[in-house]
Amino acid sequence: MEKNYKLTIAYKGTDYSGWQVQPQLKTVQGVVKETFKSMFKSEIRLMGSGRTDAGVHALGQVANFKSEISIPPEKLVQALNSNLPRDIRIKECCIMDDEFHSRFSAVGKTYLYYIYNSRVGSPFLKDYSYLIPYRLDFHKMEKAAEGFKGEHDFFGFMSTGSPVKDTVRTIYDIKLQKQNDMIAMEVTGNGFLYNMVRIIAGTLIDVGREKIHAEDIGKIIDSKDRSRGGHTAKANGLFLKKVYYSEDEILKCTSKKTLDTLGALL
Amino acid sequence: MEKNYKLTIAYKGTDYSGWQVQPQLKTVQGVVKETFKSMFKSEIRLMGSGRTDAGVHALGQVANFKSEISIPPEKLVQALNSNLPRDIRIKECCIMDDEFHSRFSAVGKTYLYYIYNSRVGSPFLKDYSYLIPYRLDFHKMEKAAEGFKGEHDFFGFMSTGSPVKDTVRTIYDIKLQKQNDMIAMEVTGNGFLYNMVRIIAGTLIDVGREKIHAEDIGKIIDSKDRSRGGHTAKANGLFLKKVYYSEDEILKCTSKKTLDTLGALL
């Protein structure tokens, strides 16, 4: 009997051309599919909750596949981790009912974005944070972040090349925290447009550099004009932290007030 | 006139065969020397506070060299960082009096050691922590750590191949902290024998696995028998955090009670 397996996957995106399978390129989806195939001699259709770009990381990407193969979920975790490269780790496996779909069943996501604000880069965090060697006004950035909360048409916070028609999204929560040279942004919403988190991060950086006024965020969103927002922050600072499949889970996460700057990586 | 330049250097040791120059191998000392030479057409004798092994990292290695070249320290930092690979960063440069020597003037060091205690490894922290997929009793490890404090003959906590005669060292402070799956150890002493920090870490792990009794640390040290201590923990978890050149500085550091598990990397 066919079972519906849900995988929660962490990966370091640095050496991958993103999540989605592409001919001739090493991608996370491709490597997981190939690993499964070489282990079980069986092809799977592995569906992710969404794409991540080259260099973007995941603490908790979710993917599902249906298979006739019968293996206890905890054994599948062990077996896959023994065969996958060390920069991709299966954190969890569950068997779901037949209707579960990693993308269509998702009701929200949390992303993390790390900004390393120092004249000298860190040799340890270079793959995990966007280096900004200029002074940033953190309090202005915090103030500007408030402007993103709620339901808005984020048409102007999307990179071109996306076929999406409905560009209205709700941001439930956005928090900034500073610890020494690191600024962490955590944002939770019901969905995100292509590059939306990176454009929000870039806009907050441009506010910190006093190129954009913190008070103008609402006007910039309403303008639906991509050129009025900030630049698109680099891929290396972005982590897909969590994908939600129930509204309750989102509420629990947004009510937590602390954001542990690097502790999230643990 | 010749000046005595002191450099504070951070590096990710993963892709280097340690600090010390070795023929045919990429080492941190070698890369810094070669970078200086290619920039200033001048050879330097770069002396480090001590060697670090392949895969070991530094947050604050200290090295000094004497040179006729006259360049303001902050300019030298910028110039070197523009030319060095991104996994080596000059954090600071000072001009010292003629007597200063990175190794002989040092009065103490602090090392950090990270243990990642989880059945599933982290794709982000694999180069920065030693993965222990077995249950560790953290409270026993904390208790055992106390046994290392003070002045002892650490002959049994040294790997062979070291020409050192005096094996008495003082550990001023040793702290453990646990945050989710990460255990961080911070140890400060007046000096450390070859592999001593990694053998202490390995011994604490073996205590956590209940292979060694927490109460036996004193006896094991006094036995001066390498075979009675724990295994040598892997190089990837080790960071040289700080080198001290005054007793006051050490006292200030050991009096701080908090150890921020990953925050130290910031």
UniProtKB/TrEMBL annotation, chains A, B:
The active site is at 53 (nucleophile). Belongs to the tRNA pseudouridine synthase TruA family. Formation of pseudouridine at positions 38, 39 and 40 in the anticodon stem and loop of transfer RNAs. Pfam families: PseudoU_synth_1. HAMAP family: TruA. Keywords: Isomerase, tRNA processing. Residues 10-104, 144-246 form the Pseudouridine synthase I TruA alpha/beta domain. It comes from the Bacteria. GO terms for biological process: tRNA pseudouridine synthesis. This is tRNA pseudouridine synthase A. CDD domains: PseudoU_synth_EcTruA. GO terms for molecular function: RNA binding; tRNA pseudouridine(38-40) synthase activity.
